[in-house]
Amino acid sequence: MTTKNFLFVNRKAPYGTVYALESLEVVLISAAFEQNVSLAFIDDGVYQITKGQNSKGIGMKNFSPTFRALGDYDITKLYVSSESLAERGLTVDDLMELTYEDADDDYAEKPSIILVDAKGMAAMMAEQEVILSF
Amino acid sequence: MKYTILVNEGPYQHQASDSAIQFIRAALEKGHEIFRVFFYHDGVNNGTRLTVPPADDRLIQKAWSELAEKHGLDLVICIAAAQRRGIMDADEAKRQGMDANNIAPGFRISGLGQLVEGGIQSDRLVVFGD
């Protein structure tokens, strides 16, 4: 099957609407199709991968642990907007430590999160073939 | 050019369905091909035949069904999103032990793989949503 560059753009907070949860469902399916998958986190989407999420009080499932499994699906490129973090008073230290094992480098554990500014985000998007925005 | 269309919002609440229908009509008129239309999130609500808008309003579900009939469009509703929102065909209703189904003519229910396949097989995937 043809392999294409797929990008999933996550723009919404993890709770409040179902977009983030259902986006992650498509991401996992696309991995099963062996596509070259990247994720972008922009605007409130950066909250999806913050650490220490506790959704008990709102009666919703905390699905953030699923992001930790992405490395096992060969989804290893998670682009995070540096401006969106800064606008919300967040730094990369507020995000989960998402990593993957690099098969080409003796399975060394490497970070999946790539911090980019708007210019870098635009350049990365220009390389994509299929962009899904949630 | 070959297009797959993704509709992420329900009818009436949001203009995404109207815009998608208008885009598809224009694309077909120009001789383009619509490989598939995939309905996700609240977009699955486009596929219930039980909508009854006021007489002076547009009939969004009928517009979809007519497009499907006239142009052989493949209208696919995501099963996981449909199950959450109560959109069912006869098979699914039977499987879930429900007493009714509500899927509109021209629509079918299938998995998210159909969306990914649409992205792979088409020249462009166009998203209509919020």
TrEMBL record, chain A:
Gene3D superfamilies: DsrEFH-like (3.40.1260.10). InterPro entries: DsrEFH-like (IPR027396), Sulphur_relay_DsrE/F-like (IPR003787), Sulphur_relay_TusC/DsrF (IPR017462). Belongs to the DsrF/TusC family. This is Sulfurtransferase complex subunit TusC.
From TrEMBL, chain B:
Keywords: Cytoplasm, Transferase. Its main location: cytoplasm. It comes from the Bacteria. SUPFAM superfamilies: DsrEFH-like. Coiled coil: none annotated. It is found in: Cytoplasm. It holds the Pfam family DsrE. InterPro entries: DsrEFH-like, Sulphur_relay_DsrE/F-like, Sulphur_relay_TusD/DsrE. Belongs to the DsrE/TusD family. This is Sulfurtransferase complex subunit TusD. The lineage of its organism: Bacteria, Pseudomonadati, Pseudomonadota, Gammaproteobacteria, Thiotrichales.
